[in-house]
Design a protein that fits this description.
globular; membrane; CAAX_protease
Length: 213
Amino acid sequence: MNKLWSIIKSVLIIIGLFLLYNIPSFFLALEQPVLLWGSGIVIIGLLIWVAIKSGYFNSRAKLLTSYNLKWVLGAFVAGRFVAVIFTLLMGEASKNDIAIQEMTKNLPIGSLFMLLCLLAPIGEEIIFRGAILNSISPLKDNPTQVRQLMGLLVSSLLFSSVHLSSNVMGFLMYASLGALMGLVYLKTKRLECAIAVHFLNNFLPFLFLALNN
């Protein structure tokens, strides 16, 4: 019974986090930068608060180490390589990238930064690595490699499924990127490191969109 309740609780938390994360997107159509920033800051604060209360941030493992830095930079470089290879194989930008360009073409740079470089990295890592991966393979329990692999697989597939992939290549690209960030989380035991990789991964598209707006 306790195990069933634990599963139900985890699912409810994940659904709640996902709904919370998507609130600022409703302000995109209003073209109100102040509302977008205000809601974004509040939502990020709430997401972090839930993540801390749920134990997704591990303060026992060291954060600022050369080991963690190598994983962050290595995953970022690997992620860029993956993105380039899959984009070449698809012969065009992913449906998700096209949708982002369309939705953000009239956004001020500040609002663009909020969505791509703050809300997306923090929110998506808390949901997919903190909540989903960690619920399947809790780091505090020293999970087996099988549990870690299962958590990595499920979280990566779900991560890809929300990124509007229109073909197999696009789906595999986002699943691979999700797996890289999940691997960073498992290896460093710090959600902040996965967030850093996601931030770096989104910062380049932000620069491209900002310079072309």
